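Researcher: Re-running this chain for the archive, since the previous output was lost when a drive failed. Same request as before.
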Amino acid sequence: MRIVLGVGGGIAAYKVASLLRLFTEAGHNVTVIPTEASTRFVGTATWEALSGNPVSNSVFDDVHQVNHVRLGHEADLIVIAPATADLLAKAATGQAGDLLTNTLLMARGPVLFAPAMHTEMWQHAATRANVETLRSRGAAVLEPASGRLTGADSGPGRLPEPEAIFDAAMALVQGQSDFQLPLAGHTVTISAGGTREPLDPVRFLGNRSSGKQGVALAVAARNAGATVRLLAAHMDVPPPGGVEVVPVETALQLREAALAAAADSDVVIMSAAVADFRPAAVSDTKIKKRDDRDDPVITLVRNPDILHELVELRNSAAPGRRQQLIVGFAAETGDSDGDVLAHARAKLQRKGCDLLVVNHVGTDKVFGQDTNSVVILARSGSEPQEASGTKTEVSAAIISRISAELNSVSPRA
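Model: Regenerated structure tokens:
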């Protein structure tokens, strides 16, 4: 596929290098057209090296090829990232002052704008009118992500992550109508991995969690346009790019991080495997094995119920505050008192979260594996939803369900 990648003059231009690599690694032929202002952030040499094609922003280069006409005609897709307020205004008003704006006027295929600018600029009536104009003409304009901007400010205006723009672009070319980012403007906090409770300086009580499912959830939420905060306990896999990572080790540290993160989160997903108990006392020195002493006795105390505490905190919020969606995970095994789903339904009732993702765990199931099979239970009483496949596929199903819950018009009880 022939893609024209237009680069606007914003600080987020540096992130577009990763988007270009995603396009080229997928086998697409990409011509980069940077605006003159954007070359003050990323030079043309970078775009030529990554695309393998010559780069220009002037209508007077290679005049014999009539590039200001040819590029727009030949492109199967045009992507503008970052789409600054200036570029959106020029595109909406049909200006043709450089090679990129000329190419936009000549476009015959789909056009995707990925905006990035300061919050006040994005929310200004002029910008909103330009966006509506472009959309009314058939262009796709993504909602920007929300999060840290240039300087100390935060809010909507961040460039969506390259992976999210790539997915939206591919969906647009395939004619899908749902290419928009369903979690754009939302902040999602996800816990992942397994907590470790120290016994002494070298030993701990832990579990088999690898963090793979939590990381896959973070990627899926990021690609859906969310601002993602990952509370990372022990994990066998690295955290993904484009998310804020908060490292934790123990259940108490996770509790502190989760309560703090929940304050500005629209969604909280507690997928970490949290220890139910911790040693009552932690030795300052290594516990020695000696023949002249009895075997040590380790006394355990109960860890706080973080999920239940988050629900209570949410439910006590001031009236009128936007509701928060809380998702729990349950690693269950059946026993003489009931099967996996029976235990999970009882847990959902106790915890009070909105959704509970249920895993049937065992020695060779779920933990550390690349595949998973889950059942999603809802406090609303709707039919259980099954999802299985790779942890990436399962995460996509979970994030899709969360998006549907957020967009539901029915209030949560």
